[in-house]
Each structure stands twice: as structure tokens, then as C-alpha cells.
Specification:
369 residues, alpha/beta, 2 domains, 8-stranded parallel β-barrel, 3-stranded antiparallel β-sheet, 8 helices, globular
Length: 369
């Protein structure tokens, strides 16, 4: 399970006097100051702790730690936020605090590489990571096959890392539909953990999904659909916690999680540190959200981003051209995502020809440098 921060609380606004209980130290924190988060590594492959440190205010003594917990790194920013938000900050895997530019990747399979053996050329073009369909490396039960293991090692030898997995299934509707979707996602989570275990490069695993289109399930009320997605997410979160994997919702204008606000709402309602966000601005910006508003709502939960564009017709119908060919301001997107230490990968999608893929890479690459 991902380790939780030492202290959490409710409605303690930074800058106002407040008292919070700390389960590790059993002592209160009285804060009237900013908080700096210190990343504490326990030496495991994916182990880390968020340790709130109070700047300019009194704090209890830090809990005793073993020698393996002595390696600390202070993140280079302070956060003005309620202490309650610390519960929802996704941990940064060791080595993944933002120390370099965002890495550019692509959804696989894609038009430039027809087989995994050809992925070396993607690295030559500047795409060093993938979001992968599990079925390509697994059997019918989504168990990693020997060929899949070999493929992961081959990709890594070419400098290409699998950073996310696709598991796009609806989490609303008839019980059997939701149960099948949850079952598939849980299998994908276990696969992601298996793949990470044999990897020499990856120290985190992300599984991405949609939430489901309410228009397809008009027999259910909005309230019932919301209860369905919450129940399903809680079951998925338990599996993600067990396998130390992050499950990332991709908010989409046609889905029940149709905006940054609804996505943040479910993250807070479920209350698991293993639920995050795959941020695709084309899916919500322009009608459901502003770019700045979406990033502000989700900035503590984003674990990767998608790169495509959007054009909204006068009737509101969207079309999705490649990044740089629509209404989105990608310079501003990268500016807003750059300070988010957990968003390290930008995955290209919606490129339909080799020419579109190469031109999209050329368009995005300068923003990653």
C-alpha cells in the first residue's frame, strides 16, 4: 500500500491557527504558517512518505525512524493549502520528483511502430515512454506472458519505458457490466504490478480508465449512477492499494466524471491515495472547464497527461485533431503542468498517419526541453 503522510486533518487553513492530531506522534500540530513537504525514502523500490514540515511555526518532534528512513529531500516549493488536502496528495515515487523536463511518449500501438521490435525508432524520434494496451503483453486473464516479459526487457534495452496501462471500461450501468469492468481493471492493476516488478527502469505503475457515459444508462437516476461509480472506485482503490499501483481517472466531457470538479469530488469521496488523474485537457477544456481552473482543481492528483487537441463546433460537438491543430494552448499547458512534481509524462494520442505522428512529436518536443 502506498504510504500515507504522517498527519492529516480537516478544514485547517494554512495561515490560520489550527490544531491537528497526528497519528504517528499522538501530538497536536499547531500551525499558522506554510507547509513544506519532505520526501522520506525508506529504501524500497517504490517506498516514500510525505512528511509535513512546518515553516515558522511550532511542530512536534519528528517520529523516530530507522536508518533506512534517514534519506530526506525537501521539495523545492511550499504549498498553500488546507491540511486536509495532504490526505489526497499522491506520493511521488522515489526518483520521480520533478528534476528534469517532462518526458514525451505515445500511446501504443501507433502508426510509427507496427511491432514492439520497432520501438527503438520511437526513442530516436524523442518518445521514450509508452501507454500500453495490456492485451498485447498478457494472456486472456491479463497475466503477463513470457513473451510479454521479454518485450518489456527489450523495450527497456532500447530506452523505452511503459509508464501507464489502458483499462478503459465504464463504471456505471447494469450490475453485470460494472462487475465486468471492475474485474478487468483489477486484472490490469495486477498486470501493471507484475510488469513493474521485472522492470529495471520503472518504479511506479499507473492504470488509466474512463468512468462511463450516463447517456447510455438513462434508466438510472444521476444519484444512482454516482453511487455506482463511487462503489466501483472503492473496490478498485482497494486492489490498487494492495498492489501499490495508482489508478488514474481520465475525465471526459461525455462521462459521469465530466470535469475537474466531478473528478476531484470522487477522489475526495473515496479518500484513497491510490486514485489519481490522467489529465487530458482536450477532454474537458472549452466547455466543462477552463485550462487554469482544471489544473488548479486537479494539480495535487495528476500523474500523467495526454496530448491531443480539440475543436468544439457551434453545437458543442467536439472533434479531436492532433496536438497543435485545435484550440488548446500547449505552451500554457506545459507551463501549468511543469510545477506539478507527479506529472512527468505527456502521452501523444489521436495521430492517424506517420506524418501526423512526426509533426506532433516535432511540435511538442520543444516544450519538453
Amino acid at each position: 500500500m502506498l504510504n500515507r503522510g504522517h498527519c492529516t486533518g480537516e478544514n485547517a487553513i494554512v495561515g490560520a491557527q489550527s490544531t491537528q492530531s497526528c497519528p504517528t506522534t499522538q501530538a497536536p500540530i499547531r500551525a499558522s504558517c506554510k507547509i513544506v513537504l519532505v520526501l522520506v525514502s525508506d529504501g524500497r523500490k517504490n517506498g516514500c512518505l510525505w512528511s509535513p514540515q512546518l515553516v515558522g511555526g511550532a511542530a512536534p518532534d519528528s517520529p523516530r525512524t530507522s536508518s533506512s528512513l534517514q534519506q530526506q529531500r525537501s521539495l523545492n516549493f511550499s504549498l498553500d493549502l488546507p491540511l486536509r488536502d495532504l490526505l489526497y496528495l499522491p506520493p511521488i515515487p522515489r526518483g520521480h520528483a520533478r528534476e528534469q523536463a517532462m518526458r514525451l511518449g505515445i500511446m501504443y500501438p501507433n502508426v510509427l511502430a507496427k511491432s514492439l521490435a520497432e520501438m527503438g525508432q520511437m526513442r530516436d524520434h524523442g518518445c521514450g515512454c509508452l501507454q500500453m494496451r495490456p492485451e498485447l503483453l498478457a494472456d486472456a486473464q491479463l497475466e503477463l506472458t513470457p513473451q510479454g516479459k521479454d518485450a518489456i526487457q527489450s523495450l527497456e534495452s532500447q530506452g523505452v519505458e511503459i509508464v501507464a496501462w489502458c483499462a478503459y471500461k465504464p463504471l456505471i450501468g447494469e450490475k453485470d457490466v460494472v462487475a465486468a469492468s471492475v474485474g478487468h481493471i483489477k486484472k490490469a492493476i495486477r498486470l501493471a504490478a507484475q510488469a513493474r516488478a521485472i522492470s529495471t527502469r520503472a518504479d511506479h505503475a499507473v492504470v488509466c480508465s474512463e468512468s462511463g457515459n450516463p447517456a447510455s444508462f438513462k434508466q438510472f437516476s444521476s444519484a444512482e449512477l454516482w453511487r455506482q461509480v463511487v462503489r466501483a472506485t472503492r473496490e478498485i482503490a482497494a486492489c490498487a492499494e494492495e498492489h501499490d499501483v495508482l489508478f488514474a481517472f481520465e475525465p471526459t466531457r461525455s462521462n459521469i466524471l465530466d470535469s475537474s470538479k466531478t473528478t476531484r469530488k470522487i477522489i475526495e469521496e473515496v479518500g484513497s491515495r491510490n486514485i489519481g488523474v490522467c489529465f487530458d485537457p482536450a477532454n474537458i477544456v472549452g466547455d466543462k472547464d477552463t485550462l487554469e481552473g482544471a489544473v488548479d482543481n486537479l494539480k495535487h492528483h495528476v500523474r500523467l497527461a495526454h496530448a491531443k487537441d480539440v475543436i468544439l463546433a457551434p453545437d458543442g460537438k467536439p472533434t479531436y485533431p492532433p496536438a497543435g491543430k485545435g484550440s488548446l494552448d500547449y505552451k500554457r499547458i506545459f507551463e501549468l503542468l511543469a510545477p506539478i512534481p507527479t506529472c512527468n509524462h505527456m502521452i501523444i494520442e489521436y495521430v492517424r498517419t506517420p506524418e501526423e505522428a512526426l509533426s506532433t512529436i516535432a511540435f511538442l518536443k520543444p516544450f519538453c526541453e
